[in-house]
Amino acid sequence: MRLRGWLWKGIALMLLDPKAGVLVQGITGREASRMVEDSLAYGSNIVAGVTPGKGGQRVHGIPVYDTVAAAVEKHRATISIISVPPPAVLDAALESFDAGMQLCLIMTERVPQLDTSKLLFAAHRTGCTVIGPNSLGLIRPGITKLGTIGGRVDNVRRSFMPGHVAVLSRSGGMTSEISSYLTSRGVGQSIAIGVGGDAIVGSNFTELIERLENDPATDAVVIYGEPGGAAEEQLAARLKGKLSRLRIVAFLSGRFVDDLEGVRFGHAGVIVEGGRGSVRGKVKALREAGVFVAETFEEILEGLKRDA
After folding, report:
1. How many alpha carbons fall within 13 Å on the CB side of residue 31?
2. Of these residues, 75, 124, 164, 267, which one is catalytic?
3. Nearest alpha carbon to residue 286 among 246, 238, 232
4. Which of 66, 111, 273, 290 sits most deeply, having the most CB atoms within 10 A of its CB?
5. pLDDT digits over 175-188, tens only?
6. How many CA atoms lie within 13 A of 84 on its CB side?
7. pLDDT tens column, 119-152
8. How far apart are CA 279 and CA 61, in angstroms?
9. How far apart are the first and last CA of the chain?
10. What 3 state SS string does 62-94 have?
11. Of 90, 81, 85, 96, nearest in space to 116 by CA
12. How far is CA 245 from the centre of its chain?
């Protein structure tokens, strides 16, 4: 199968090798414990958890350690999921980088921006790819998933199906909504990623699409954007300078926010000031870069059918 062929040729692309060991920092927390239960049911290879002071416990059969180093020594994990309180995220991330993590998903929201900047600098230095903060996770449908993306495992199986369209979204909920809509129309996904709703995140649309350029399993990308930030404009600038082989379709919400100066909605990154980050400006930039901007979910399908 084409998808399986990609899996072994391009493991490093998104680092979602189903054989790679995953550890969960904050595993004894209620949200993390439920996430582990659903992830195991979906087939994710969670091998260890870390909660300082609770080493020796088990969560859904997964051993808990006091430190990431101890967990890695025993289980050789290369992927970390961080689900700890905001003040603890920086230390947790630095600990995972020091232990050689290759991919780090930060689910926690309301992480101080200075802490995010510090951990992203450290991640770049160590070569770790960061998704989030404030991300529900990512999934290769039918292969593996990280985080709470899609909700409980039964909902995940209904909402996602293997295919060749990547879904990238600033909203975790809309990652699932768009994927579920595509699935209901017979369009499967190669990967779906909640990039995170904070103003500063580890991997943005541009960086992820550049990786997907080399992914034979992906033919097209659907991005979901919101007011605030410059991720969509940055993607438009990149596409103006270098065309993509992928069909790219964008769906942006929150157009009413354009007229509400200085007001913040929902995600920490959803703020429009001085005309910066407006949906109107994002739509204009994307269309000028050749991106099909859908006004409705139905138009997403229309965009996917058009030639790149």
Report:
1. 15
2. 267
3. 232
4. 111
5. 999 999 999 999 99
6. 20
7. 999 999 999 999 999 999 999 999 999 999 999 9
8. 46
9. 24
10. EEEECCHHHHHHHHCCCEEEECCCHHHHHHHHH
11. 90
12. 22
pTM: 0.89
- Whether the CA torsion 93, 111, 22, 146 is positive or negative: it is negative
Structure confidence at residue 18 as a pLDDT band (50, 70, 90): confident
- Please provide the size of the chain in residues: 308
**70 Cβ contact list (under 8 Å, min separation 6):** 55
The answer for residues whose C-beta is within 8 angstroms of residue 199's C-beta and 6 or more apart is 113, 228, 229, 268, 269, 271
DSSP letter for 257, please.
G
22-42 burial string, b = 16+ CB within 10 Å, else e? bbbbbbbbeebbebbbbbeeb
Structure tokens at 108: 């926690």
Q: What are phi and psi of 174, to 5 degrees?
A: -75, -25
